[in-house]
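Summary of Year 1 activities. Much of the first year was spent building the evaluation harness for sequence design. The harness presents a backbone, in tokenized form, and records the residue chosen at every position. We chose the following record to illustrate the format because it has been used consistently in internal testing since the harness was completed.
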């Protein structure tokens, strides 16, 4: 299935129903399809050909959805860039994929300061197009409508950035088939979207969970309501104003919503399904959230960028006091999961091992990284690096994250990357970075530092230093000063012992 199928389906069955809502803008499926055809034609006139990469660096909006559809309409490859990256990280990613065109909103314009000349820059903001850019609405007005190429399922559709064991970003390659498989398989296993309902797109669309949640709702019919970014008060107003039925969230977002001063008077009765994931959910936080949204079915999703979501919980199993409240769910209809040992052989039920998975939802590989692709997909399975055990009925229970990845507020942070930045500070002799439990963020970045002799270290100085080279969310929120780091018998930093001290 090609990903523009959902737009053709909406035009055929609900041409006059609102498909996208953003602020005061509301457009029907028919209007959106017409704009997409003209935008695709305009991008083609700008030199974008089938297979070319089109970057999107923007916060959520109706135009983000149109840009996705238009790129696929002409056979291009969308490349989703993180709005929380630094200019250096953005420039590296654009160069990595050899982008022909980049769409940027007003808030993200400062992030393209480091770009070399080359890609066409399309301004997707509401004001006048800055010098050196092309106006989004001008493109649509002038572009000729072109036919949808209706890409083959195996055609590369998206490059979505994730992390790696070295801490540097790499792009997972997904085809039309892998993304479509994930959407359809997840919908068949859990009610992640409501037929003819509406979904609030509040998690960033440069993350795969928000992207697929949006597309699942569009596929079954209904309306996409866009929140430019997550602001709890505004989200609560949108939920009531548009009678939203489903939303995809992180644990931190849910906590900020139900603890907001406006929550007691907000109308959230229309919410039928809340899909959450992307970060650890403390049981106490989940219990409070389920009490705050009593009409909603809670569905937990387990997965990663490379898998486009591979497991979720049925609502009947996901209940306060239930034995599987802490479970990450069972394999969805389109995926196979086993718990494997170091050789990739399945271990007995109840034994901790690595989550291995395969199916048509799995990425094609990493862009321009054949060695890392071969390592991740060895033996015909995707090796996730996550440690878990499985019970006798196939439910997963995550026990640890290999590779020392930290997930804070739905963002992936790799400890080695932060450690490298901290160690460049002249007052730091040695450091280790770990994730520690945090009720709001799921995990927070915590640095354990051995100061250089005769030097003092403050959290303010460390955060400011890290932000000079990395995104702000990667800077440690807390630090701990020690005389020496715990090490294993081989002299390596013992992060398991460090984490144990904070649990």
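For this record, the design step produced the sequence shown next.
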């Amino acid at each position: 299935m090609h990903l523009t199928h959902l737009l053709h389906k909406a035009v055929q069955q609900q041409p006059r129903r609102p498909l996208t809502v953003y602020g005061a803008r509301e457009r029907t499926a028919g209007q959106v399809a017409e704009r997409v055809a003209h935008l695709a034609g305009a991008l083609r006139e700008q030199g974008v050909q089938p297979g070319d990469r089109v970057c999107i660096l923007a916060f959520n909006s109706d135009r983000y959805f149109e840009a996705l559809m238009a790129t696929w309409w002409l056979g291009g490859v969308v490349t989703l860039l993180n709005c929380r990256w630094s200019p250096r990280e953005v420039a590296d990613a654009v160069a990595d994929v050899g982008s022909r065109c980049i769409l940027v909103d007003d808030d993200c314009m400062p992030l393209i300061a480091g770009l070399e000349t080359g890609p066409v820059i399309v301004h997707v903001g509401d004001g006048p197009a800055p010098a050196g850019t092309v106006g989004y609405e001008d493109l649509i007005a002038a572009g000729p409508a072109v036919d949808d190429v209706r890409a083959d399922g195996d055609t590369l559709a998206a490059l979505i950035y994730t992390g790696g064991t070295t801490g540097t970003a790499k792009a997972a390659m997904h085809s039309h088939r892998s993304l479509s498989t994930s959407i359809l398989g997840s919908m068949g296993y859990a009610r992640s979207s409501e037929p003819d309902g509406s979904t609030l797109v509040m998690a960033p669309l440069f993350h795969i969970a928000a992207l697929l949640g949006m597309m699942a709702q569009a596929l079954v019919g209904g309306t996409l309501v866009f929140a430019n970014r997550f602001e709890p008060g505004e989200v609560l107003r949108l939920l009531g104003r548009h009678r939203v039925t489903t939303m995809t969230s992180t644990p931190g977002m849910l906590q900020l919503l139900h603890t907001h001063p406006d929550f007691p008077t907000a109308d959230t009765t229309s919410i039928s399904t809340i899909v959450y994931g992307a970060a650890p959910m403390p049981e106490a936080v989940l219990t409070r959230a389920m009490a705050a949204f009593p009409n909603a079915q809670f569905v937990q999703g387990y997965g990663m960028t490379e898998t486009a979501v591979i497991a979720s919980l049925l609502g009947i199993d996901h209940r306060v006091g239930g034995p599987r409240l802490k479970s990450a769910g069972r394999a969805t209809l389109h995926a196979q999961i086993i718990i494997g040992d170091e050789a990739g052989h399945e271990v007995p039920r109840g034994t901790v091992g690595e989550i291995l998975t395969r199916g048509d939802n799995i990425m094609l590989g990493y862009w321009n990284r054949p060695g890392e692709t071969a390592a991740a997909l060895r033996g015909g399975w995707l090796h996730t690096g996550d440690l878990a055990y499985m019970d006798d009925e196939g439910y997963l229970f995550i026990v640890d994250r290999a590779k020392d990845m930290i997930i804070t507020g739905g963002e992936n942070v790799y400890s080695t990357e932060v450690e490298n930045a901290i160690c460049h500070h002249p007052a730091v002799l040695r450091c280790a970075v770990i994730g520690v439990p945090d009720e709001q963020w799921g995990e927070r970045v915590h640095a354990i530092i051995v100061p250089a002799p005769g030097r003092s270290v403050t959290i303010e100085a460390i955060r400011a230093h890290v932000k000079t080279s990395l995104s702000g969310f990667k800077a440690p929120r807390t630090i701990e000063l020690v005389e020496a780091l715990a090490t294993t018998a081989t002299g390596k930093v013992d992060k398991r012992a460090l984490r144990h001290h904070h649990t």
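The first strand starts at residue 18 and ends at 22. Quantitative recovery figures across the full test set are reported in Table 2.
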